[in-house]
Design brief:
The protein is an all-alpha fold and 190 residues long. Helix content is 55%, strand content 0%.
């Protein structure tokens, strides 16, 4: 009888744990998984991982998509009807997830040149050491290589301008090779 009772208690606890864990995932997070991956770890090359990203940054980007300061054919419609509370809930959730390794193999020579360019352009002033970001400045360490390159090119071409001009200004000084080197350096940080 004690074994049966212990089994019942264990089963109930496991079921309750599953329900509680599921309750912690915001309902809107399910629509993010298709592109941004499970727990915000994207496996799509041109799509950012949201896991371990700064909550304030995620929230501001969602708001920028909603208000038209940033455009994307997938994101803009996704956030159109979202409340600020839902955006904040998503931001808080993804910021608490663990960023997993992308298994990116950075070219050591390009990464070294990327680090030198990052030092020269004072990237760590905003993104901090190890590129962990702060507040509305994103964590870029360990992002997908293709996403880092695309983002820098978008800022350089002024296709993305929701940055108060800081990234646009820095990116305008970068060559195509600088961007590739920075991609190797940043994506290789874990």
């Amino acid at each position: 009888m004690k074994t049966f009772f212990a089994l019942c208690v264990t089963t109930v606890m496991l079921m309750a744990g599953s329900v509680w864990a599921a309750d912690e995932v915001p309902a809107k997070a399910a629509m993010c998984v298709g592109c941004h991956g499970v727990n915000g770890n994207s496996s799509m090359p041109g799509t950012p991982s949201l896991a371990a990203q700064n909550a304030r940054y995620i929230y501001l980007q969602l708001r920028d998509f909603q208000e038209g300061r940033r455009e994307n054919p997938m994101m803009s419609p996704m956030v159109a009807g979202m409340s600020r509370a839902e955006m904040q809930e998503l931001a808080n959730y993804f910021s608490k997830q663990k960023l997993t390794s992308k298994n990116f193999k950075a070219d050591p020579d390009k990464a070294k040149l990327g680090q030198a360019k990052a030092d020269e352009t004072l990237c760590a002033m905003c993104h901090l050491g190890e590129f962990v970001g702060q507040n509305e400045i994103p964590k870029v360490a360990g992002q997908n290589f293709d996403y880092v390159v695309k983002t820098l090119k978008d800022f350089k071409a002024k296709n993305r301008t929701n940055d108060a001009g800081n990234m646009t200004s820095v990116a305008s000084t970068l060559s195509e090779q600088d961007i590739e080197n920075l991609g190797h350096y940043i994506a290789g940080l874990n």
